[in-house]
């Protein structure tokens, strides 16, 4: 029988969490509705959405308007409000919303907020939530229609932009000839109740010429100066029968302001009488008393331009603003389209559009957002690239340091940062993780090659987008929490990136299949070469390279495992040949290196692990290495021969590499072995793999062996024989000798906990792990398992959901802290004490002790002393507090030890 000693001071955080359930404190927030994709969609899948207007409201929320019907898996039709963190504000509900939206009939200025928080929304719709509302509507704070706003029959054409004056009156621009039955050519001003303000008189209004025919002008943008004069931009050639190409300034009563001297105005050269240019956005800069205009503008008043200009208040070009850096599609000498711009509080200007490629960037994956300094030069500290089949930025809004970018795109900065047409970026162009983050790795192919926990609770992990995947710009980087990784990355215990060491790991560029730690705070990393790296991400260059490893028989190189001996030497196993410098001999699938990385020639494996790999198969390989007493070494994997000794997937070696015939495995395993762990406290070997028998005895996928290789009859596999690809692939052992295992049986991926006798622990949550597609194999959804210092469970692999909760490739599971102790009479050891305590290197007891086991404060087994030793050396342990389990005959006790 077992008892569990609970560490009471650690207990409260675990009181309400079942073991094996997700720890929601790791990498929070998560997407409550758990879509595979982030952001908006018009198809119920990644991409497809077009957002035309985003507006940051006074309360920090964001109004979003465009062609979409889903946000993060939640139905929402064409108009939504997001909370500052990117979650959907469910208190705002427009029901069916507008019946129609279209980019051609839109702009970045289709939403305005009144001082009372109500929203004016314009567009090309005929109904709103099933109610007849033509092209303009006012909404209450909850998204319902404000019926006190009455525009009559409204406009007979679409409305593209709206602006509220300081007196509350509403300016509307678009392409129409009438408003509520009265003649208004493309612009009108309304009173606060929706009626027409007849004091605003634009005469004949705005006209355009297309193929020598006069048509309605189109208003795309309106801004208001401090003196209440109104700047209007769009696509037109005349205002009230005066030549005004695409730009005009009006007095507050609607008449032309003749002090605004723009000459022939702005746009492209006309062709066959057609106006080819237009202005998408005007912004009045109150601090400089200047005016920014942007759009399709190749010339302005006869002067060449590049789609962005700054004008003096009198309409002349401000020559101190020299913008000439943005060119068009694929690096060609033609301008892209700038659909929107945003003037930030620091005076810099953000530009977004289509075909905006920066600094002669070539290819279709180039920058669609540019930041411009106050003198017109490009701000090279800002780097934000949006990617998609059709990539456009229609709207940019900012407040303080918050920049919201929207349009039509799927991902950001060439990485699989799926945003669904809306993203919040920082001042340097990186995505802002406070808004709708993709936490973990890529959700479409979420995969971690390796992960390991450190003593301080931090994590080293290797996220990867997909093995051998190359990004459109040629990069082969991975991704974690929306930041580029080049192999390994250091993660804080809460799931955030450890920023202090981020650059070091990025520079080291180490991809690792397998990680371990030594006692000097080094990480041992393998794939395909074994290297030492500090916990800070810096490579230990004093450790010799193993780059002479080559592939056997033209098969890919794999270092599958390595084991660190007490003397600092490292045993390396996998599917490789190591070429010994100078003598032309090989180390076949197994080698040992000295603590400095040089080959240990005293480790004599002869011909080593043999067997010819067959193309299309897993090949012969050493998959796992376990160090056992008397300096012996147990290997597991896929092999049939060791130095001419017939074996079957398991072998034990002496310390010098020679075959140990005393290991009684008989006919051994009938299929692959994936992992072997030696349980020091019970002196057993636990083995997992693809096998269904051992030495002709049934044992499906997991078995426990005695130290001599015979079967431990006290442990029985809980699994029946499954389909061909059934297997147990990974495992860790808890301090109470329970086993956390992962694998796949009959097509079902699982993570389970077994009791020490092999029965399934039903107190451990039974979860389902799913992924869109697999990067490593159909049995690697949970590829890595390790225990954190607080005894919680770190898992990583190829999953993007656990049950119905979004987790992209990495998660922490709840697990109770404990120490397992046998049922002994503890009272007889109550007079035992330790000295010295605290201790630096060596401690003793005041009487003889049969056995001492050392555990971390959280209950993790570390080390055991036996055979009535009198002095106990712990020089290799780090400073900290440890728990000793002391056994003498049939009595025991626990004591606390402090290591200085």
UniProtKB/TrEMBL annotation:
Signal peptide span: 1-17
Superkingdom of origin: Bacteria
Q: Name one Pfam family in it.
A: DUF5122
**UniProt keyword annotations, A-Z:** Signal
* Record domain Secretion system C-terminal sorting: where: 834-898
SUPFAM superfamilies named among the record's database cross-references: Calcium-dependent phosphotriesterase, YVTN repeat-like/Quinoprotein amine dehydrogenase
Q: What NCBIfam families is this protein classified in?
A: delta_60_rpt (TIGR02608), Por_Secre_tail (TIGR04183)
Q: What is this protein called?
A: T9SS type A sorting domain-containing protein
């Amino acid at each position: 029988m077992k008892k569990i000693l609970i560490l009471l001071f650690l207990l409260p955080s675990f009181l309400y969490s079942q073991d094996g359930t997700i720890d929601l404190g790791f990498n929070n927030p998560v997407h409550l509705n758990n879509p595979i994709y982030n952001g908006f969609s018009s198809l119920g899948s990644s991409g497809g959405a077009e957002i035309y207007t985003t507006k940051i409201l006074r309360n920090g929320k964001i109004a979003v308007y465009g062609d979409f019907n889903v946000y993060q898996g939640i139905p929402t039709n064409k108009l939504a409000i997001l909370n500052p963190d990117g979650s959907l504000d469910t208190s705002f509900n427009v029901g069916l919303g507008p019946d129609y939206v279209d980019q051609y009939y839109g702009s970045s200025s289709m939403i305005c907020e009144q001082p009372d928080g109500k929203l004016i929304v314009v567009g090309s719709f005929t109904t709103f939530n099933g109610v007849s509302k033509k092209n303009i509507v006012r909404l209450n704070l909850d998204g319902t229609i404000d019926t006190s706003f009455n525009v009559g029959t409204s406009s007979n054409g679409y409305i593209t932009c709206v602006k509220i004056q300081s007196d509350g009156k509403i300016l509307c621009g678009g392409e129409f000839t009438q408003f509520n039955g009265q003649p208004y050519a493309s612009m009108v001003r309304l009173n606060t109740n929706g009626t027409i303000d007849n004091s605003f008189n634009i005469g004949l209004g705005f006209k355009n010429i297309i193929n020598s025919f006069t048509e309605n002008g189109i208003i795309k943008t309106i801004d208001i100066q401090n003196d209440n004069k109104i700047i209007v931009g769009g696509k037109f050639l005349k205002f009230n029968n005066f030549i005004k190409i695409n730009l005009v300034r009006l007095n507050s009563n609607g008449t032309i302001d003749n002090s605004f001297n723009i000459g022939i105005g702005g746009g492209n050269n006309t062709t066959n009488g057609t106006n080819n240019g237009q202005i998408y956005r005007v912004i009045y800069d109150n601090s400089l008393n200047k005016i920014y205009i942007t759009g399709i503008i190749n010339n302005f008043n006869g002067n060449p331009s590049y789609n962005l200009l700054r004008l003096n208040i009198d309409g002349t070009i401000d020559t101190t603003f020299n913008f000439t850096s943005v060119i068009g599609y694929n690096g060609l000498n033609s301008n892209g389209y700038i659909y929107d711009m945003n003037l930030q509080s620091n005076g810099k200007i953000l530009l977004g559009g289509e075909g905006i490629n920066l600094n002669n960037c070539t290819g279709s994956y180039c920058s669609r957002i540019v930041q411009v300094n106050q003198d017109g030069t490009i701000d090279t500290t800002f780097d934000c690239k949006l990617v998609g089949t059709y990539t456009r930025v229609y709207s940019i809004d900012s407040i303080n340091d918050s920049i919201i970018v929207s349009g039509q795109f799927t991902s950001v900065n060439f990485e699989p940062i799926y945003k669904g047409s809306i993203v919040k970026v920082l001042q340097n162009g990186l995505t802002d993780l406070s808004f709708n983050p993709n936490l973990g790795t890529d959700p479409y192919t979420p995969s971690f090659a390796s992960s390991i926990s450190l003593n301080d609770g931090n994590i080293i992990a290797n996220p990867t987008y997909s093995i051998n995947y190359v990004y459109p710009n040629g990069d082969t980087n991975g991704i974690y929490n929306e930041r580029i990784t080049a192999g390994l990355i250091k993660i804080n215990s809460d799931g955030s990136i450890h920023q202090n060491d981020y650059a070091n790991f990025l520079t080291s560029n180490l991809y690792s299949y397998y990680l371990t730690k030594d006692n000097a705070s080094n990480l041992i990393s393998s794939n395909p070469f074994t290297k030492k790296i500090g916990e800070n991400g810096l490579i230990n260059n004093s450790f010799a390279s193993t780059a002479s490893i080559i592939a056997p028989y033209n098969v890919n190189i794999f270092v599958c495992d390595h084991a660190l001996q007490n003397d600092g030497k490292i045993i390396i196993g996998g599917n490789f040949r190591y070429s010994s410098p100078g003598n032309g001999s090989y180390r076949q699938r197994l080698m040992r290196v000295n603590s400095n990385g040089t080959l240990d020639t005293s480790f004599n494996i002869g011909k080593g692990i043999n067997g010819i790999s067959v193309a299309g198969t897993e090949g012969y390989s050493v998959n796992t290495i376990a160090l056992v007493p008397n300096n012996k070494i147990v290997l597991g994997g896929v092999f049939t021969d060791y130095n001419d000794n017939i074996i079957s997937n398991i072998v034990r070696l002496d310390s010098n590499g020679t075959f140990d015939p005393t290991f009684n495995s008989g006919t051994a395993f009938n299929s692959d072995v994936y992992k072997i762990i030696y349980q020091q406290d019970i002196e057993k070997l636990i083995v997992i793999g693809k096998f269904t028998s051992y030495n002709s005895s049934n044992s499906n996928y997991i078995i426990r062996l005695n130290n001599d290789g015979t079967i431990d009859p006290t442990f029985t596999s809980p699994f029946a024989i499954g389909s061909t690809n059934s297997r147990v692939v990974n495992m860790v052992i808890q301090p109470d000798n329970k086993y956390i295992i992962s694998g796949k049986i009959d097509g079902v991926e699982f993570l389970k906990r077994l009791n020490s006798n092999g029965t399934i622990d039903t107190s451990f949550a039974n979860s389902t792990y799913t992924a869109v597609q697999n990067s490593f194999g159909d049995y690697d959804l949970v590829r890595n398992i390790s225990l954190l210092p607080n005894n919680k469970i770190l898992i990583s692999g190829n999953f993007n959901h656990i049950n119905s909760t979004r987790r992209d490739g990495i998660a922490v599971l709840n697990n109770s802290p404990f120490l397992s102790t046998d049922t002994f009479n503890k009272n007889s050891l109550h007079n035992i004490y330790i000295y010295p305590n605290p201790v630096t290197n060596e401690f003793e007891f005041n009487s003889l002790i049969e056995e001492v086991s050392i555990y971390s404060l959280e209950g993790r087994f570390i080390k055991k002393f036996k055979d009535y030793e009198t002095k106990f050396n712990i020089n290799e342990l780090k400073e900290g507090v440890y728990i000793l389990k002391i056994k003498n005959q049939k009595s025991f006790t626990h004591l606390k030890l402090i290591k200085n």
